[in-house]
């Protein structure tokens, strides 16, 4: 499962396989009850296909666990409210991110991600490391054989955040953004500070387009997040996306601004 660090995904798959065997179900019988073909079940169990939240929920239905495996995935890896979005993100052909405050997770460096996660003092050191690893694992979709087109619109203020011992991390982060823009399918566009107030300052959001052409959105807040899949909500996010993208600089001027901000933070 690319939602969580590999060892955790391996553990969950092994437990599903063990539980299926204990229930006396063949892959075909289990698949019928879970809503999947026997070949799909086989490919998940042998690691050639990613484990998804839908498959986990199908497992819980098939084995009548009362949601045990979904709770396990949430406890060990990623909050359950985020899993549906990660499924959409992983299978997307197009991704759209707007961030007024932070760098999007798919574009964060390890040091930046760890520093951001450490701001939550309810997390233990091991939980921070686990979440950092999960975030880096997500980024593999950008370098696989068939990556999605990613367009990220960032407010300039997110690039200039600084503080004691943070400038070096930010310099490294900006350098990473610049290197990512060299990939033909990654576009990082900047809303300059001179723009002032704009609609995107109300909060971050994301959109993902599936291979079937269906769009879904995602909103984050202090208590969690929300997947937006109703037509009116998705339409509203598309309207907001067009507004913030129109405020952003074109691709090359955005890269020029990134390079300027990199010098602002000093050496890495």
Helical coverage, percent range = 40-55%
- Using the CA coordinates, give the radius of gyration: 20 Å
Distance between the termini: 33 Å
Describe the largest sheet. Answer: 6 strands, mixed
Which structural category do the helix and sheet elements fall into?
alpha/beta
Shape: elongated
Count the strands? 6
Strand content: 5-15%
Helices, by number, come to 12
Q: Can you write the helix and strand succession as a string?
A: HHHHHHEHHEHHEEEEHH
Mean pLDDT: 87
| Parts with pLDDT < 50 across at least 5 consecutive residues | 1-5
Q: Which strand order does the major sheet show? A: 3-2-1-4-5-6
Which descriptors would you attach to this protein?
single chain, 268 residues, alpha/beta, six-stranded mixed β-sheet, 12 helices, 6 strands, elongated, disordered N terminus
Descriptive notes:
This protein is of the alpha/beta class and 268 residues long. It contains 12 helices and 6 strands. Strand 5 (215-221) and strand 6 form a beta hairpin. Mean pLDDT is 87; it is low at 1-5.
Please outline what is shown here:
α2 crosses α4. Helix content is 50%, strand content 13%. The protein has 12 helices and 6 strands.
SSE topology sketch:
Blueprint: H1 6-22, H2 27-34, H3 38-45, H4 53-63, H5 68-76, H6 83-91, E1 94-99, H7 110-117, H8 125-138, E2 149-155, H9 156-159, H10 167-180, E3 186-191, E4 205-209, E5 215-221, E6 224-228, H11 231-247, H12 251-265
Helix pairs in contact: 1-5, 2-3, 2-4, 4-5, 7-8, 10-12
